[in-house]
Amino acid sequence: xxxxxxxxxxDDLYSGYNDYNPxxxxxxxxxxxxxxxxxxxxxxxxxxxxxxxxxxxxGARPLSRIPLTSSMGRPMTGAVQDxxxxxxxxxxxxxxxxxxxxxxxxxxLGQSKGPAPPLETKNEDTPEEKIKSLExxxxxxxxxxCMAQSMGTLLLALEKAKEAGRKERALVRQRQQSGYADQxxxxxxxxxxxxxxxxxxxxxxxxxxxNSYQVIVKNKMFNNAGRLKVNMANIYFKQKNYPKxxxxxxxxLDQISNAHKGMRIKILQNIGVVxxxxxxxxxxxxxxxxxxxxxxxxKTGFNLILCYYAISVKERxxxxxxxxxSVPLGIDDEDxxxxxxxxxxxNMVIEAIKNDKLHQMERDLKALAEKYIMTAAKLIAPAIxxxxxxxxxxxxDTLKSSQYVELANDLEINKAITxxxxxxxxxxxETLKTFEKKDSRVKSAAATNLSFLYFLEKDFDQADRYxxxxxxxxxxxxxxxxxxxxxxxxxxxxxxxxxxxxxxLRNDSSCTEALYNLGLSYKKLNRLEEALDCFLKLHxxxxxSAQVMYQLAHLYELLEDPQQAIEWLMQVISVIPTDPQTLAxxxxxxxxxxxxxxxxxxxxxxxxxxxxNIDVIEWLxxxxxxxxxxxxxxxxxxxxxxxxxxxVKWQLMVASCYRRSGNYxxxxxxxxxxxxxxxxxxxxxxxxxxxxxxxGLKEVQDYATKLKKVEKMKEIRAGxxxxxxxxxxxxxxxxxxxxxSAKMRSLPASNEPYEASSPKELDASYVDPLGPQMERPKTGxxxxxxxxxxxxxxxxxxxxxx
Length: 802
Hints:
The relative contact order is 0.03. The N and C termini lie far apart (about 115 Å). The protein is mainly α. It contains 34 helices and no strands. Helices cover about 60% and strands about 0% of the residues. It comes from Scophthalmus maximus. One of its GO terms (biological process) is intraciliary transport.
């Protein structure tokens, strides 16, 4: 036991282990034969794994013996060296320490020692931390600039980009001062310069943008910077500097490898567009032909047709059209989205993908292709053959043998519309009648157009027949319902017309023509509040429609609210400030309110724009007479005599104005002239007698004799007492007798000042196969001044599609 070393008193690792069972006394081991045999064998010479038994698992005293060296001469890890006992550190993580004694508290997490010391603060004054902080700020500013651009605040985006540039330069200086000049972040510098150039371009600051792009392009350290020459070319294109745009597009094309085929195709397309702007169609054709041979697309095919059309090459136009309709779109068949079985899971998948973004993109691409094809066909049809009809027939036959078979019928309807454009209504009707045996959609469109044509020709029976045919083919066609309602409207069955208009609105809630005509129907039925509601809804859709605002003004006038009527008419004037009928109506309303000065202003403006309105002329003449400026009234009544030379009252008013202003000689001459034209006019003879008497002329007796003869003749003819044939304001010498009434008569000749009693206001409709929303023009070639809303509005051309 002389080699057994005990731990010191103050660091007793195995306190309490001296109390052991005598059975395990080692003193008897020297006399133990089995133990001695084991020591002498190889088992006894094995180096133990540790010098001491882990007595924590058993309550016995550990055995100690002389350590043996291993076969490699390595000392035992647990051997006692230099007389120091090894502390038991392997169990500290479990909560055991050398200081633990019996009855001590188990505290494996060391909670009894109090809170942990605070973490050491990072020193931000070091150069590395300053560089990292600046880099983060620059990245944040670039991100904020991009976000501002996406939200449309371009000025803020530019300011953020400039600030990012300043921070990046400060970052470069910081690196150089700290000795890290070789660690410059080129990607960050590239991002800052590119974002700054883009923001300059977005704010139309083209010189600054070009300078920024030039800095990037000239720096050889930036990889693939040559692509930015495309951006520079785009700027030159916006500046209409087409030669430089071509130059930079070609430089960019030279620096892009053939591996980037899509990019090269787009640049070639831009080059072709620039050549078109320059009028160099042959060079543009070269670019477009190369694209159509490498990677055809509908936009390039359409541009190629335009170029051939510009240089009038018929056969090439046909070839280009055939190339256009053969461009593959890469779109799945629509039958893919139709459920074909009772499998619930597959049907759910079909419903999910039926209206997803990918399918919407496919529909948009197909609609764009159809638009280009229809436009190209309508463009080249009159040019590729001797007549446009033959050209249309060639295009129709070509389409029927392509993937766009359904466009052939639409193109034939466009052929009929072209006939309408050329005022050849008979051919248009004949063309549309060929669709009566086609499928329901085409048949409904053709019947709708036929109904519209017959409505324009005022053949309302045929219009009604084809409207019924269109409704039978497609009951959900709002244009057919509008035409049917219009044919009923002209028969004054307003209730039934309103029902058709409401059905059209149920099928298409955005159909403005149906809403307008429904408002007219309610107004005819004297349901003014419902009509007002219709036109207010329509005004919310068509904010700048002068006709809608005019109807609202009329309704408020009928509802006896002149102030609201004036407000709406003022909005009409803000849209069409030169409309004479609106100005005259404003004058009438102000006159009714007693505001003569404002009434005179608007009547005078109306006369300035349209000096042939008799009612306006009459009001202005009466105004000057009432204000005792008779000489100013003469010019208006003289104009009235030119407009209505057979009306004697205007010439009498001219003579009366001369007499009132004291020019008796001129008045006498005017009365004599009137007498020569109208020898039986009693009023003229009476004033001649009076003037000749006052002036002491000898002709007084002759005129008196003529007056008696004329009066006697009238008595014989009438068989009644003497009745004056002219208004009382021209009789006698009373001043008030010659004056016109202070209140002007109703502005239009009819009792409806805003709309004609004829059906010209109704919206008749036709189907334009180019788009979902068709134009539905007003009927009638041109509105008349006397009985319609707007005198200068041309309406006939509206029936043609754009």
